[in-house]
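call fold(seq) -> tokens
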Amino acid sequence: MVNQNENENINKTAIFDNEGLEINVNIYTIEKAKNTFLLNLNSYSKTELIENLKNLLALIESFLFKYLSEEEIKQIKIEKENESYDFFQLKEAVNVLNSFNNDLARELAREIAINSYAIFNRVLVKLKIAIPISKKDFKKKIITSFFDTINYKEYGFEDFEDFENSLLNEYEQKLKTLNLKNSRLNFLAFVYSILSRYDLDNLTIISGFARSGKSTFALQLIKRIYAFRLNKTFKDKELRDFLKREFLAKYTFYIPSYNEFSRRFEYENEKIFLVDEGYFSSDKRESMNKEQIDLSKSINAFANRKHITFLIIQFLSDLDLRFINRANILIHIYERGKALIFVKQKSFSFKIDVFGLENYLKGRINVKDKNVLLYLLKKKSIGIIKWKKLSSRIEKIDIEKELKEYSLNENVFFKHKFYDVYLLLKLYYQNLYSQQKEKEQIDKLKEFELIEKIKFKLSDGYDFDSLVNELKEKGINEKLAKRLVKKAKEKNEIEKLNI
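ret:
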């Protein structure tokens, strides 16, 4: 004879059978409702926001009451900043959303939805049930990451899924038109190519060890973006000439060139920029450099120009934080021909979020084993991109001869391949930079020698004005002459201190 308590336990255990849970209906419905709500958060009016949130919580509440009593539900709490909340407190918080402005209401609604779902998920764990859903594929993750801030209704789509399907269909048609393979690299390029259509700009950071293929990857991606934009195949002569004449010559920056970059960035529209050496333009050790500040100002203040900017640097931790915070996407190359993609939550950009890599950047996690680090990074990335190296004949080119020809006639590059042209241009600007640095060193040495001579003349009794006039007679302008004499005078006074 089974007593009443034992009977209750038997019945309660039976309820937790997978078939009794109706997994395919209840859990999947809640999961989809949560994803839809978070995905469309920014496009909801306040009324729609509250209504959709109430619907989501109603689904969760119905599930919870099916298996737990009210007291049991109240025992499941979410800890937030030394406070704890149960499901019913979160549900009650929905009633106060009307009293906040739209931005704050959305932020609070997001927190309520996530925490309510966390309680629901804890119940699933308690019942020893895994959520039976498949993960989003690469393309949908990329679309969500790039376009989660747009109001799809403004572009004639019923919901985000409708917008998503439209892009996927357009991509398939483009592949057929351009005779391209369906690859992650091509899909990523396609998404970049249509950003301006939806009033979006982009800053992408590409990181990786020296000689890992960062520039090769950037050029591969950019070539594909222009192919989609111009509707040209890779073999099309017009596309190849355009890339050399326009992109490499005008929108690729190899060494410090802040003024030229800013001028183009501020006055042109919908261009692609490649800032090849991030150490020259965005090193965090020079974060107070005026030109570097102006560069970051241009990228931030002129987002309405809808440019795409690729910034290349070896170590992400060396990058000025302004650029990391501004970036929409990070691509990390971990070996030649393979890269990981990282994106961050754009819906609430005022929250600290560095692609989920903040602990690594700030040294909180120190992983000595490269394989362990790669494993951890892969878990945080949304996909792995593979590509083949661009073919090059650079070793067959007489570099010095080509550089001399370029300085006289830019058309010399039309006989070379895209990657060769990039390498020659980079070498050309590196040479210019080295020559400029050498000239600066020579000028500093000459200045030092001149100040030493002026210093001795001051000791011999020459006055300030007579020395200035003497320098002017030798062709030095008055402003520079006064600065040199002043420096010599200060040096004399310091030496007299005898400290």
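The CA atoms of residues 117 and 278 lie 41 Å apart.
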